[in-house]
Amino acid sequence: PRAVPSFVLFQIAALERQIFDFLGYQWVPILANFLHIMAVILGIFGTIQYRSKYLIMYAVWLVLWVGWNAFIICFYLEVGHLSQDRDFIMTFNTSLHRSWWMENGPGCLVTPVLNSKLAPEDHHVITVSGCLLDYQYIEVVSSAAQIFLALFGFVYACYVSKVFLEEEDSFDFIGGFDSYGYQAPQKTSHLQLQPLYT
């Protein structure tokens, strides 16, 4: 219960990320964020209800979450063969939408290019200039923050689930069966069944 404020921080960070991914129509991150929000709720429930299994499931999810955020960092920094201009992984290859921060980053000036032959149907071409921080780096910082929070949450979930499991193992059932030499009550002679003759 004392850790619930840290879970609130995890939830706020996940909701912030979800909002900006919705604004950019980034469908794959939206789905991943939704699963992460559900996992954080599971972690909160496991902490409040003293359920170590839920915390273990939360810890397993956090390993996947770190991997996902590492992929996002690699994607936006175009590590290896990944390319933002060629790969539309974040939208399930259904649209040309990009990060919301591309056009709305701090200090960015967006200028539409009129009559561009490069624009696909129902899209327009823009130029973005004057950004104080490019959108790729905003996405990288956001993912790095998620990794940091996930590592903290993983350590917390492992520690608390271990404490819960130790408490379950040492729980003493009404004085304990072993400590007092529990024996089942014996039948007394007046309770024994007697044959009935008619």
Automatic annotation (TrEMBL):
GO terms for cellular component: plasma membrane. It is a multi-pass membrane protein. GO terms for biological process: regulation of sodium ion transport. The chain crosses the membrane at residues 27-48, 55-78, 144-165. It comes from the Eukaryota. It is found in: Cell membrane. It holds the Pfam family NKAIN. Coiled coil: none annotated. The keyword Protein biosynthesis does not apply. Keywords: Cell membrane, Glycoprotein, Membrane, Transmembrane, Transmembrane helix. Interacts with atp1b1 C-terminus. Belongs to the NKAIN family. This is Sodium/potassium-transporting ATPase subunit beta-1-interacting protein. The lineage of its organism: Eukaryota, Metazoa, Chordata, Craniata, Vertebrata. The gene is Nkain1.
